[in-house]
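To whoever picks this up:

The nightly regression suite flagged DUF4194 domain-containing protein as changed. Nothing in the input moved, so I suspect the structure step. Input below, exactly as stored in the fixture:
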Amino acid sequence: MNDDAQILIARLLTHQTLRRDDKLVKRALSDEQFRQEVDKRLLDAGLKLLDNVYADHVTLALHRNVEPRIFGAKDVWQNNNFGLTRDGVALLVVLWAQIILPKRERQETHQHKEDDQTDFFGKDKPLPRAEDTSIGISYTALLADFGDKLGKKTRMDMNLGVLSKLGFIERRGDLILEGPLLDLMMDTDLLKERIINGALADVFKTSNLQVVVPKPQAVAPANDPEAEPQPDASTGAENT
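Regenerated output under the current build:
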C-alpha cells in the first residue's frame, strides 16, 4: 500500500525537483516525524533530501558516505555526473556566482526585484521567494565577459543548452534566469569565498556580498574523467 513518504520520494525521483509549496514537501519541511521517515528511506538508498530556504524547489542528492563509491570509480574522481565538460562546469559556476549570490543578498535584505526604494520595515517580512528576487543576467553581457574563457560563442551556446535541459537555468530571450537546480547544487559555505576572492575576484571586486548559508548541502553534478575534483557541488535525482 502506498504511503505519503513513498509517494514523495517517487515523485522526486520522477520529476527531479518539486516546489517548496507542494503539499508533501511542506509536510516534509515542517513535520519532524514525517521528515525522519523520508530521510530513513532515502538513506537506505544512499540519498538525501536537499533543500535550502533560499530556493523555491527541493531535490535529491547523494549522501556523503556513498560519494567515494560513486564519484571515485576507476581511481578517477569524477567532478560531476551530468556529462558536463570542464568548460560546462566552469560556465555553471559563473552562472551560479552571477545569479545566485546577488539573489541571496537581496533575499537577506528583503529586497524584491521590482523594489526601487528602501523599505525600512522590510526585515520584518518573511524571506522573499527566489522567483521574487532572482533577476538573472544578460546573455550578451555573459558572452562579452566570459566568452573567450569559456570556449567562445559556439561552445558557450552548446553548454547553455545542456544546462537549460538539465534544469539549472531558463532562457527567455537575451535573459538567463535561475532554474530549479541552480541554487541547490553548490556548497555556498565552502565555495563562496574561493569564488569571490579567487576565480571571479574581478567580477565581484566592487561587491560586498553577505550570504547566509543554509544546511544541508549536497554533492556534485556530470562526468569528465579528466576533470579535477570539484568540492561539494550538489546534484538532483540524476545521482541515483
